[in-house]
Amino acid sequence: MLLVEKLQTRRQGRTFEFSLQLQPGEIGLLLGRSGSGKSTLLELLAGFLPASSGVLSADGQNIAHLPPAQRPFTMLFQQNNLFEHLTVYQNIALGLRPDLKLSLQEQQTLQLAAERLQIADLLTRRPGSLSGGQQQRVALARCLVRRKPYLLLDEPFSALDPALRQEMMQEVRQLATEQHIGVLLVSHQPQEAKDQADWLGFIDDGQLKFTAPVSTLQQPPTAEFAAYLGMSSLG
């Protein structure tokens, strides 16, 4: 389990504070206005921002002092950060070894991830020849081969059309369930919470105001969240 208790950081003169729990296999969806602190939370967890106080532990182990590479997170951004001069195979392989010299077992791991995400027939191509959905599958495969227990998604599918976005969310749901991966997803799409997430959190003014199971959110629990949604319910 990922445990975050009053984890604080300062950025551009503002104080941010977050508390949450994430179980393996769960998807938590984080909503909030631009600049509210959603990406700051993910960067704080991943170790890209230093924490000034609070608790950050994974499976009972304190990880707040660990550098990013040693933390149990993989992070996927809206910009998929694929290298245009490398093949799909090589881009995924970077998740295993920066020198691209994979062992036989690592090659098999890569192949399985590619097959799982239906891109096994694209391994010799370069990112520039792929559609947006295919590129995001490649980026997600690179995350999966790292086999970290927690996946941080910072609006990775927002540039895709609604049908592709829904398809990618279904892939994430299956991966979370089958591989017991805990997922934190930043999004501007409340419907994704109703369709795929286990719980929803609302971030406002640098704080995680509440988390609640999606099944209980028939009505917005706060006036601020209702104003954000611009509606009376998630339905």
From TrEMBL:
One of its GO terms (cellular component) is membrane. The keyword Disulfide bond does not apply. Residues 2-230 form the ABC transporter domain. GO terms for biological process: thiamine transmembrane transport. SMART domains: AAA. SUPFAM superfamilies: P-loop containing nucleoside triphosphate hydrolases. InterPro entries: AAA+_ATPase, ABC_SmlMolc_Importer, ABC_transporter-like_ATP-bd, ABC_transporter-like_CS, P-loop_NTPase, Thiamine_ABC_ThiQ. The keyword NADP does not apply. Keywords: ATP-binding, Cell inner membrane, Cell membrane, Membrane, Nucleotide-binding, Translocase, Transport. GO terms for molecular function: ATP binding; ATP hydrolysis activity; ATPase-coupled transmembrane transporter activity. Pfam families: ABC_tran. This is Thiamine transport system ATP-binding protein.
